[in-house]
# Entry
Amino acid sequence: MNSIRSTFTRLVLVATACALVAGPAAVSASESSEYEEWSAETRMSLGMRVNGDAVRSLLPGNWTVAAAAGAPEQVNLTVTFMDRHVILDPQGQPVGTGSSRYMVMSVLARNAQGEDSILIINGISPEGTGAYEVYQPAVVAIAERSLSGQGDSNAHVEENWEMVADSGDAASLTLRYQQSVPTRRQSNVVIRSGRNTGYTRTYAIDQANDALGAPGVADSRIESFSFIAEGPLFSRLFDGNEVVTGVTSTPWYHREISIP
# Structure
């Protein structure tokens, strides 16, 4: 049977059809002046241990990030590749072109008062520095996804991501894996800018996560994996000693954003 090949954008026409019919009425906070945006996305996230000094250099002076367990020279970093299929404003109209692809880096940090928060510290985006004012403007932002399956069997998926910033920083991810039934999770999360920590956004999230494991681990469903990051900043973050601790596929991720 021929592989079913399509981009994320084409897939979403079927996957989110019901949500789009309802438009902004399907979003619970659509009447609130704080409500900013709704989106439907597909994501691939990497949990990593990376160079601690390089990460700390991106944090405000009164924020810290704990050393990774058993690796005091490293800290935990999440690298998330996103394909935003549909982006709508409170009136149900497309934001920009209505779709976007980018990569985000985030850490769990703590301020001097002992408060923990997820900070967005860097990334690559075709939308410029973004709401958090930390992204590097992209000159390339590509997402590709191919699926192959028969009947009711779990599909094999191949994904290719390529992100290049105008600074010369670049990241690419290629992997192949077997899908499993994802776990649905609903949550409300406050996200903070790593540049201006007084700026926060609240996400009401409905998502399905498929934890694939770590590359090379016996029970992992990852069949092949390659992650390459290089450039002025990325070569310091990913200095050759980085460790991938887990990979999570999120085949669908619905997010409602509001500003406190």
